[in-house]
Every structure is written in C-alpha cells, then in structure tokens.
Predict the 3D structure of the following.
Amino acid sequence: MDDTAFTARHWQPRDDGRLECTLCPHRCRLADGQRGFCFVRLRRGERLVLDTYGRSSGFCVDPIEKKPLYHFLPGTPVLSFGTAGCNLSCRFCQNWELSKARATDILAAAATPAAIAAAAAALDCRSVAFTYNDPVIFLEYAVDVAAACRERGVKTVAVTAGYVEDAGRRELCAAMDAANVDLKAFSEDFYRRLTGGRLGAVLETLEYLARETAVWLEVTTLLIPGENDGEAEITALAAWIREHLGPAVPLHFTAFHPDFRLLDRPPTPPATLHRARAIAQREGLAHVYTGNLIDAEGGSSWCARCGALLIERLGYRLGRWGLDPTGRCLACGEALPGRFEAAPGDWGERRLPVRIGAR
Ligand code: SF4
C-alpha cells in the first residue's frame, strides 16, 4: 500500500463496507483497491485517496480569453494546467487525451502548490486556471494551489462542468475568483446520452455561483449540430440564464469539431453560432459571444445601454478599448459587468508552454 498517497476529502463509510465518494453526483461506492468513475479517486484500505494530487499534465501560459473569460482581467496571461481524468464521459470531449488518460500515463510534472503560485507570479500571470480537465476531481489540489496563489495576489479560475455535490461545490467555489462553467446542453436527455451526467446538478452549481458567491461567472455552450443547436433548446437555455443567473452573465457559444467518439457530426457552421447568439440576445442576455471562429461582432463586447464598442477582439487578440479606468463605457458611463483593471493587459494571442516542478 502506498502510504504517501494524498487522503481525499468528501467520502464516508457505508454499512455494506464500501466507501462512498460524496464529491460528485456519481457517488461511487468503492471496495478496497477500486477506482471511481473519474479514475483518479480510489480506495486504499480504509481511506479514499487522490492519486493526482501534486501532479500536472503540463503548464502553459494562455490569454485569459482562451478559457473563455471575456469580462475578467482582459488581455492578461493566465497560467493554465490540468491533471488527468474526468467525472463525465462526454462522447464529444475536445480534451480526451487528458480526461480519459490513466493518471500515470501522462502526469509528467510534480509541482507543489507553492511552486505553481511562485511560477505564476514570476511569469507575471494575473491568474492561474484549473483547466484542460475538471478541477472538481482534483479539488484538494486545486484548493491548495488557490490558497498559495492568494498569498501572492494571484487570482484563480476554474474551468468546470459544474458536476459536483453541494459540499464540494462550496469548497471549490470559495477558493476561486472566476469560473467558466460548461453548460453542455439544456436537456436531461443530452446529458444522459452524451455525458453520463445530469443537467440538474449543473444548474444547481450555476445558481449557487451566481447567487451565493462573489465568483465572476461566465457560461459556455458547445453547439453540436443536430444535438443541442435547436431553436427551442437555445431559447430555453438563454431564458433560464436570464431568469436564474441574471441577464448580465456572459454566455459563449462555441463551435464543435468532430472528436473522440462523436466523429459522425460535422463541425458547427458559423451560421449556427450567429443564430444562437441572436436567439440569446432576443431572450434578453446582454453579453453573448461566438467562439472558436473569427467573428469581430460576436467576439467583441458592446455596451448594453448605448451599443458602443467596449472591447474589440479578433480571436484572442484585443483591439480598441472603450472602457474608462473604472470599467465604464466611455460613451455613456454604463458599467460593464466583470472584473477590470485600469487598463487592459497586452498578452495577445501567445501560448507559452512552461516547465514547473520536478519530472
Ligand atoms: S469524484 Fe470520482 S470517485 Fe467521486 S463520485 Fe465522482 S466520479 Fe466517483
């Protein structure tokens, strides 16, 4: 038995002798030696361990726009990393090399929370993102990295599917400054058939973030032709966001490309993204974006009151800037919801792989 493995939180013994992981709605019940659905949380004797604690699949400095976060420190670099495994099994996964990896296959770098925070500060990153795979399943590592980052004034960002139970949700969100939540569709049928999860749990995470935390929230929906791009579904999704999260929460519609086990669907046509954006705007959402394509209008931020251009984007590159130092429209004074500094960053579109920690 490996006694050095990190003891996880969020589990309890059951009457039948198994240990139940209570972190996510799968609620895996594990016999000794058994791994959960996510593969990285497993039972060792009378405890549950997380075998990706302190292990990363690699680090990269990205533009914050790539997460995507468009209203959170625009133009700044974010130190991004992930581990291995996932608690959903999306047939269309765009990161399946990591999410479906057996932990030891790909985890090259061993990096402590302090080393990651120090590297972020040294690289002038304004934030660290838990991304590439879902931080829910490496929660204890993400929370410790976030604490080390806070000591250095570095912000933290979760890119997550939000498939987590209440206690884990509270712990993860308390550690974060911003989140982009993947709302994969607006039907239980889609979630059941294509992700192995439940929509209801994701909606609970979204409502919790929007109503009970100070975490800056943006939402992303990947549109898959013939699966979740119907007018009625997009209308219902946008109306739900307006009603339950508020009309100012940014919504990103991004383009699918055939991947993993969903190779028989075509890439999302640009017209589908434009149509979805128009529907969501009609439903009253103020900041709706198109992603994974070059679209000067759908990729830029516009004033909800006077229509002025506030942040011009071409891809991940910023252009004209129409905000005053307090984040208000230069033309009419309306505040753009989000977290802004006096001036935008100038990181641009660069992607810079970095090495942190021991191999
Ligand atoms: S986090 Fe992993 S082990 Fe825990 S319930 Fe979810 S899938 Fe199962």
Observations:
- The mean pLDDT is 94.
- The first strand starts at residue 6 and ends at 7.
- Residues 231-245 form the longest helix (15 residues).
- The two ends are 23 Å apart (CA to CA).
